[in-house]
Each structure stands twice: as structure tokens, then as C-alpha cells.
Amino acid sequence: MLVIAISGCSGSGKTSLIRALVKKLPGASPLFADTYASDYCPSTVDFPLYRYLPLSDAERCQKWFDEGFPEDGYASCPQLVQDIRELKEGRPISTPIPAWEGGEHRIEPGGYLLLEDAWAHRSELRGLVDYFIHIGVPLDIALARCIQRQVRQKDDIGRLVNFYLTVAFKNSRAVNQPRAHHHLTLDGLRPTEALASEVVDWLRAAGQTTG
Asked: Whose CB among 21, 44, 54, 76 lies 3.0–4.6 Å from 37's, allowing a Cys bridge?
């Protein structure tokens, strides 16, 4: 199973890109890291990261951000790592909660695994992810997209802005930086379909697609 990690800050377009890639890559399955609990956010299943992370958890993240978002920081996610390992070894998994927007609860091995994970650079994923693809986007555009999403979903904008100013800005700034191990960096200002086509063309050139 070919594992492709899509990273980028909240509002960069990760979910939209994965939805588009699922349509373009035969046998592709999405996997969202936000549906797993991490060491610093054990309530992830109840409070998916960013939109619902309680502000009381902010202090638990602060040291990590202040230290420059180290790769072996506080976002370790053992169950996510184990599930990817299971798929790579040919065994199916069941995600902690059904993947968003109609995704399958059970994922069978084979084809492509499209992992959405803002922190895909963390070292515990090395050796499990075949390709790292990063979406870069100006942080003001990313925040505007998050606000749009809050409005669309009728969520509390004030809560989002407060969380962004107290914690998430440092997170987004760190996540938004390209890293040496990224195989492909995308311009998040381009249309989603154009980005999906770029990824498919890049995979084809690398000999990882058919047709």
C-alpha cells in the first residue's frame, strides 16, 4: 500500500485535495489524523483538533510550540502509527470514528492511503510514509478559509479567533514551513483540481500510477 501524507496548516486545503485525489486515484482511501487522540490532546475523538480543541489544552501545547515544533514533540500518535503499519503489512483497519464526509469506517490494504496530517513531518511516521506532499499557503489566507468554514458550519467565530491568536498561529507558522524531506510542495493558492492533477502527474512520473 502506497502511503502519501498530505501536510499543511489548517485552511491550506488538505481535506479538499484528498477528496479530489480519491476521485482520481483508483483504490485510494483517506485517513485523517484528526480522528485519533495524540499524546497532548487525548480528547481528539470528542474534540477534533483546531475546530473543537478546548482552550484549556492550550498550555499543554505551549512548550512544544515555544521549542520550535520539534519533530519528536508532544504530538505523538501511537494508534495512528500502528494502524498505518497494519495496512502496510496487509491487514485492514477500522478508524476510531468514521472518516469525515462519507468516508469508510473500515480501510482495506492495497492501493493508496492518503493521510491528512498537519504534523506529517513527525519522525514516528518516517519509514511508513512513502511520499510527503506539503501544501503551502499564506497564513492570512489560511485563517480566512478557517473563518469561512466556521461561518458555513455555524460555529463560534470568536472561539476560533481566540484559539488562533493564543495557540494556533504558532502551530500554523511552524506547520507551514517546507521541510527537507518533502517530496513535493504545492502552492495552496491554486485551485484544488489543479493541485490534484499536479499530484497525479507527479506520481505518474515517479512510476506510481497506472494509465
From this structure: 44
- Indicate the class that CATH gives domain 2-205: alpha beta
CA 142 to chain centre: 14
Spell out the domain ranges in the chain: 2-205
Do 61 and 148 form a contact (C-beta atoms < 8 A)? Answer: no
Instruction: Quote the cell numbers at residue 17.
Output: 485535495
Task: Say how far residue 42 (Cα) sits from the centre of its chain.
Answer: 17
Rounded Cα–Cα distance for residues 185 and 201 (Å):
14
pLDDT tens digits along 97-129: 644 555 557 899 989 999 998 877 677 788 899
DSSP code of residue 85: H
Q: Can you list the alpha helix ranges (DSSP code H) found in the chain?
A: 14-24, 58-66, 78-88, 139-152, 157-163, 169-175, 192-205
Q: What is the pTM for the complete model shown?
A: 0.79
Do the bridges between strand 106-107 and strand 112-116 make them parallel or antiparallel, or are there none, so unpaired?
Answer: unpaired
